[in-house]
Amino acid sequence: MKIGKYQELCKVCDHILMHDASTLQITANNYLHVLNAHPEHLEKYELSKVDKIWLPVRFKLISIVRGLQSVFDKRHYYVKQAHTKSDILFVSHLTNEQQLLNDNDAYFGDLPNQLMGNNVSVSIALINHVKINKRKVLSGWRDSGIHRVVLSSSLGVLAEIKLYFSQNKSKKQFKILLKDLRIEKELAEGALHHHLSPDTFNALRIAKQVRDIIRKTGAKYIITTYEGYAWERIVYYCARKVSPDIKCFGYQHAAVFEYQHAIKRPLSAKYSPDVIFTSGLIAKDIFGKVQLKNSKTVCLGSPKYSAPNLMIDKNQRCCLVVPEIFVKECLSLFGLSRDYAKQSPDQKFIWRLHPVLKFEELRGYSAIFEDLPDNIVLSEGSLEEDIQKCDSVLYRGSTAVVNAINKGLKPIYYQQSSDELGIDPIYTHKKGKSIVHNREDLGLALDQDINAKTIQSLQDFAQDFYTSIDVKALLKEIAR
Q1: pLDDT score, position 222
Q2: Angle 327-333-336 from CA coordinates, rounded to 5°
Q3: What's the pLDDT tens digit per position in 69-104?
Q4: What is the mean pLDDT of residues 353-369?
Q5: Between vectors from CA 364 to CA 358 and to CA 365, what angle results, nearest 5°?
Q6: Do the beta carbons of residue 303 and residue 313 sit within 8 Å?
Q7: Is 479 a domain residue?
Q8: What CATH number has the domain bearing residue 461?
Q9: Burial of 128: CB neighbours in 10 Å, binned 0-12, 13-18, 19+
C-alpha cells in the first residue's frame, strides 16, 4: 500500500470512530483500528474480488461454530482458584503451554509478584490464543499466589445469541453513519463486513468477561497490553461502566513502528487509557511527540531487558535470520538469505523461527526448504545461543533485532521495495544499520565492518529500547 492511500485509510477510519454517532458496537469493529503499515495487517484492506465475496460467508460459518462451542462451554471463563478481591487486574495472553509452568507472566514478567511484595493484591486474566487441554489449564499455576483466569473463546448459549443479534442490529445504524459521512464504497463495504467478523465479536467477548471479573474482584485498577486493538478500547469502556472510578492503564510491550497508528491516535476519554506505560525510553520519546490529550505516558520498562554484552568472537561470518510470526515474512527473509547462501558458501546463516512456529509446518507452504545448502542451519537453540554464534542479524519487523544489537551484532534490515512502508522496529536509529533491497545489497552489507564506537551506539540504543522493570513507576500511579 502506498503512503498516500495508507494515510487516507487512517484518516477515514479515525473520522468514523471519533464521530458522535459512533457506538460501543462500532468501536468494537477491528477493521476501523488501523494498527500499522505491516503488510500482514493491511491485507484485509486490499482483498481480491473473490476474497470479498467469500469473506461474509467465512464470518458466518465462524459465528455458527462459536455458537455450537457455547453449548459445551458452560462457563464464561476457566478459573483454578475462587474469585478473590484484587486491587489490580492484569489482562495478558496465554500463547503456549509452557506458560503454565512459569509463575512470571509472558508479557508483564515478575511485575505482578513485585506488586504482591508491596502489599498490592493482583489478578491476571489471560486471553487464550492456543488450544490447551482444559484440565491442564485448571491445574496450572497450582502453587502460585496470584489469582488467574483464562478467558473463554465463547460465552454461554444465550449470551452468544444476544451478542450476535445486538451486533447485527447495530449494523443498520453503522450503515447509516457510513452513508452520512460519505465513506468511499469499497471501504464502507469492508467495514460493514467486519462489523460481524470474528475479531469484532472477540473484542466484545473479552470486554464482557473482563467486566464480570472486575465486578467480582472489585479491582480498582486494570492494566492491559496495549497495541491499538479494538478489544483494548472496549475493555477500558466496559471497565469504567461497571466501576466509574477505576483507573485504566495500557502497557506498550511491542515495537512501535514508524507508521504505527492506532496506538498513537487519541479516541474519546471513555475508550482511552489514563496512563500508557512504555517498555523503554525510545517508545516514551515516540509517544511524547504525539498529542494524546486523554493519556499520560510513563516509562515502566520490560521483562525483555538484558544487560549489554559484546560477542567473544568477531571473526565468524554467520548471519542470524529472525522473521516474525507470519509465514510470508519467514519465506521472504529465508528466500533472500538462501539465494545469497547458494552463491557464497563461506557465509553461514542461522534460520530462526518465532517460538509459535515450527519448520515442519512451514515446509507445506514452500519448496524453499528443499535442498538447502550446508551453510544454512535451522535453529534448535535459544535466541541467546544463536546470537552468540553470529556477527550480523537479518530482520524485518522482529524485535529480536534488539537482543542482537545489544550483544554486538550488525543489523541488516530487508526492505522489499524502495516505496514499501517501513516496519523496522529500530527505525529511529540509523548508525551502523544497513538497509538492503536484494541479494547484491545483502552481500555488501555482510562484508561491511562496523567499529567499536558504532557497536557501542547500537548497544546504547538497545538499552533505551527496553529498560529494566520499575515497579515504583506503577506504584506511583496507583498511589495518585
Answers
A1: 98
A2: 135
A3: 766 665 656 666 666 899 999 999 998 888 887 889
A4: 89
A5: 95
A6: no
A7: no
A8: 3.40.50.2000
A9: middle
Last residue of a domain, one of 95, 125, 151: 151
Nearest to 355 by CA among 148, 150, 130, 103: 130
Residues in the chain, how many?
Answer: 480
Question: What pLDDT is attached to residue 78?
Answer: 64
Residue with grid cell 523461527, as numbered in its chain: 353
Contact 397, 254 (CB under 8 A): no
Distance of CA 475 to CAs 82, 124, 204, 225, 478, Å?
26, 17, 30, 18, 5
pLDDT at residue 325 greater than cutoff 70: yes
Sign of CA dihedral 453, 454, 455, 456: positive
Alpha carbon distance 71, 290 (integer Å): 46
Nearest-10 crossing angle of helices 185-194, 49-72: 20
Residue 417: exposure state from Cβ atoms within 10 A (0-12, 13-18, ≥19): exposed
pLDDT of 284 over the 90 cut: yes
- C-alpha 298/C-alpha 291 separation (Å) is 15
Please name which of 270, 202, 258 lies closest in space to residue 231, comparing C-alpha atoms.
202
| pTM of the predicted model as reported, rounded to 2 decimal places | 0.92
Domain range for 61 is 3-74+155-272
> DSSP of 192-221, one letter per residue?
HHHTTSHHHHHHHHHHHHHHHHHHHHT-SE
Beta strands in 240-333 (DSSP E): 247-252, 275-278, 296-299, 318-322
Distance CA 159, CA 177 (A): 27
DSSP codes joined into one string, 415-451: -SSTTSPP--TTTT--TT-EEESSHHHHHHHHH----
Return mean pLDDT, the chain: 92
Q: What is the CA radius of gyration of the chain?
A: 23
Same domain, 109 and 174: no
Q: What total of structural domains would you count in the chain? A: 3
Closest alpha carbon to 266 in 225, 221, 241, 233:
233
Tell me, what's the pLDDT at 114?
Answer: 97
Type of residue numbered 275: V
Specify the 3-state DSSP secondary structure of 349.
Answer: strand
DSSP string, 64-83: HHHHHHHHH--SSEEESS--
Give the pLDDT confidence score for residue 156 in this predicted structure: 82
